[in-house]
Write a structure and sequence with these properties.
The chain has 185 residues and is α+β, with helices and mostly antiparallel strands. It has helices spanning 11-15, 38-57, 117-130, and strands at 21-26, 29-34, 65-69, 73-75, 78-80, 84-88, 107-111, 135-140, 145-152, 155-163, 167-168, 178-179.
Length: 185
């Protein structure tokens, strides 16, 4: 007797997940995890605020980006929800009308938590590389660190590791100093 092969998760499976959980389809599997902890939310919200003024709105910075919290990305058969993502406006002049994005962003940021760190580092990093996303940041609010990666020849290269409260310049937003102290509680 043969064992049935599990079917890949569908978008309908994702929509059936209760609202108190975050749901993604990663490598054909439905993955759920609880909503982020407050420390995670502070880091994500503060980073979005730091980047939106100068890079999305052009206030005190170059503008030219869309910076969005938790966008739903439809990348091939995968449906991912990074904590933050950014698109250069030259690639995406307008926000699409659909409830998700099929155009891969130019930058993604994952705020690591105990329930998602392995998936963020192993599964999602590979998908982001496959899709040609140029920059990836991993932020650990418990360790107060930021790791920045750049995609080179379809492989991630660690370009910076920062910790503590120092202002830092990190690609692709290196033209302005990012105040890391704003991300930590």
């Amino acid at each position: 007797m043969s064992t049935p092969v599990p079917r890949p998760a569908t978008y309908e499976d994702l929509l059936a997940v209760p609202a108190h959980l975050v749901a993604e389809i990663v490598n054909g599997q439905l993955r759920t995890h609880p909503r982020p902890r407050p420390r995670h939310l502070v880091a994500s919200s503060a980073l979005g605020a730091e980047l939106s003024g100068p890079f999305q709105r052009g206030r005190g910075g170059p503008g030219g980006w869309w910076i969005l919290d938790e966008p739903e990305l439809h990348l091939g058969d995968d449906v991912l929800v990074p904590d933050l993502a950014g698109w250069r406006r030259e690639r995406m002049p307008e926000i699409p009308e659909a409830g998700w994005f099929e155009l891969a962003p130019d930058w993604v940021c994952e705020i690591l938590s105990p329930s998602t760190a392995r998936m963020d580092r192993v599964d999602k990093m590979a998908i982001y590389a496959r899709e040609g996303i140029a920059y990836l940041w991993l932020i650990d609010p418990d360790l107060k660190t930021l790791e920045a990666f750049e995609l080179t020849d379809k492989r991630w290269t660690l370009i910076a590791t920062h910790g503590g409260d120092d202002p830092v310049h990190v690609a692709p937003f290196e033209v302005l100093a990012l105040e890391l102290s704003a991300l930590w509680v």
